[in-house]
Amino acid sequence: MMMQALCAEVDKLRRAPIWIAYVVLPFIAAAIGTFNYQQNLDLLMLGWENLWTQHTLFEFYFFLPALVGAGCSWLMGLEHAGSNWNQLLTSPVALWRIVVAKLVVGTGMLGVALAATGALFVVCGKMVGLVGFPSCDYVVYLLLSWVGGVAMVAVQLLVSLVVRSFAAPVGIALAGSVAGLLLSSKGWGLWWPWALMSLASNANGGGTLAPAELVRFVGVVALFSIAASTICALMMSHAAATSE
Amino acid sequence: MCALMLEFAKLRRRNVWLICFGTAALCLIWMASSAARTAQGSSDGTTSLLSMAPIVNSIVLTLFAAVISSQACETDHEAQALKELLCLQRPATLFAAKLVCSLTLITITVALETGGLAILAAYKGFTDQLSVVEFAAFAICQIGPTFTVAAVVQAVALRWENQFVSLALGLALSLAGLFSLFFPPVIQRLVPSGYFGLLSCVRMSWDAATHVTSSYTVPFTWGDAVLLVAICATVIAVSSVWFSRKEL
Q: From B140's CA, which of A208, A226, A236, B214 has a CA 20 to 30 Å away?
């Protein structure tokens, strides 16, 4: 049944070219980041590390959370349309399975953006003549960012379930990411779902999570994801009553 | 006026005022966190605040413009009301009403942000206090690029029912606008949200030797203001024609 719910969510995305945005946004960040890197070589040190910060700083702190917000709005917006909630809630699928299916699809879409970020990072690095290939650390950054992103996707799905507007959750995601930036600077980023992804990405070049923090990081991600998904499933049962 | 009131009526219960207040608050909190690092009674505190504003606004106000434009158009798409509406209203009237609605919300948000900045500067006791006219000029320079972004996003939001497209465009403009601030003016002029930096009368310079960032004022660039008005007028004209010829 879980697989069927997942397949249904994937089917809903068929012929909806929203994945383009998940590739184009990292592409814009990579193109401008590389140009900026080239222009400031007198200030920056030649190497993969500085190119990484130029590519990912703004993308991970502000724009990827907002894009995730738009993606989650899309996933929930499909159900908000017409009487889809009534149909969905009368289908023989447990609510938690629907939430998990949406969470998996949302996380998969984030994975597309992160994979594009990684691929463009290598391509742009070779184009500007960086020696060799980036270390495996960058794969770890991307994987940890993906793990951190799960919590953000879960919370954004909840926001998009509560707020029926398509656009408003995107604004909430941006507000959350800006608040995450401020909280991270105070050392509280680990307790804020919108900051978890950027915290793990080493986008500011300040280093990624220490091994001791890693367990806490995964625990907090699991906590936010389970809490948001549970509330989401509980609220879904009332969604039909509130749908227009 | 009636069409404008109708647009606001459609946005009832859509929390647009909350979005306006939230956006202004977000900008102010961000800048206040920066101002907290500036010494009380600093001689260039207000100038530093205003030099940071284009960076914050290119991210937040650009996305805000995309959100409100998208919301204004989403109401009609969601209710599949365009066909009926355009039997009662001229396309140009409906189009203009949505634009004026966005402009009103943008003006209020920027006014709140500017007022908040003035209060913040006074609270911190910065000695380089600006006059009301200078703050008003600052506000107008922030409204211009935000409104242009709103016009661009509205063109897309009316064209395609799927609001993901308009929001993705808003995000792309926001990202491009932010990055363009670190590029030469020629590149900034290509992006509507790049005009936050071009129209700002306060610029930042970073001394590589001393690692000190300082702010300085420059004369208002009338040429860029005229260029922005021309871009905005072109976008509105093209998208208005586009909308009036749209098959419903």
A: B214
Q: Which residues of A192-209 are buried (b: 16+ CB within 10 A; e: fewer)?
A: bbbbbbbbbbbbbeeebb
Question: Taken in order A153, A154, A156, A157, is the CA torsion positive or negative?
Answer: positive
Which of A29, A36, A178 has its CB closest to that of B30?
A178
Among A150-164, B35-49, B218-232, the least confident range: B35-49
Which structure tokens are listed for B164?
């993901």
Sequence-separated (6 or more) residues with CB below 8 Å from residue B78:
A81
Q: Which whole number is the average pLDDT over B71-86?
A: 83
Do the Cβ atoms of B168 and A29 come within 8 Å?
no
Nearest to A74 by CA among A151, A148, A4, A173: A173
Bridge partners for B216 per DSSP = B203
DSSP H helices in A81-194: 84-90, 95-127, 137-162, 168-185
What is the predicted pLDDT for the residue at A242? 55
Statement: residue A241 has pLDDT above 70: no
How far is the alpha carbon of B47 from chain A, nearest alpha carbon, in Å? 22
- The answer for residues whose C-beta is within 8 angstroms of residue A83's C-beta and 6 or more apart is A243
Question: 3-state DSSP call for residue B155?
Answer: helix
Instruction: Compute the nearest-CA separation of A171 from chain B (Å).
Output: 7
pLDDT, residue B180, reads 87
| A227 vs A224: CA distance, rounded Å | 5
Give the range of the structural domain holding residue A198, as residue numbers without chain letter.
2-243
Tally of structural domains, chain A? 1
CB A148 within 8 A of CB A199: yes
Report pLDDT digits (tens) over A36-89. 888 877 777 778 888 999 899 888 988 899 999 999 999 998 888 777 888 888
* Mean pLDDT of all residues belonging to chain B: 88
For residues B125 and B41, is the Cβ–Cβ distance under 8 A?
yes
* Chain A residue numbers touching B172 (CB-CB < 8 A): 24-25, 28
User: From B11, which residue of chain A is nearest by alpha-carbon distance?
Assistant: A165
Q: Which residues pair with B205 in a beta bridge?
A: B214
CA dist., res. A110 & res. A153, Å (int): 8
| CA–centroid distance for B91 within its chain | 25
Cut 0.95: pTM above it: no
Phi, psi of B112 (to 5 degrees): -65, -45
Task: Look at A29 and B164 and tell me if their CB atoms are within 8 Å.
Answer: no
Helices (H), chain B: 2-10, 16-35, 45-78, 82-88, 91-123, 132-159, 163-180, 185-188, 195-198, 222-244
| Sequence-ordered list of residues with C-beta below 8 angstroms from that of B134, at least 6 positions apart, any chain | none
Whether the CB-CB separation of A176 and A194 falls below 8 Å is answered with yes
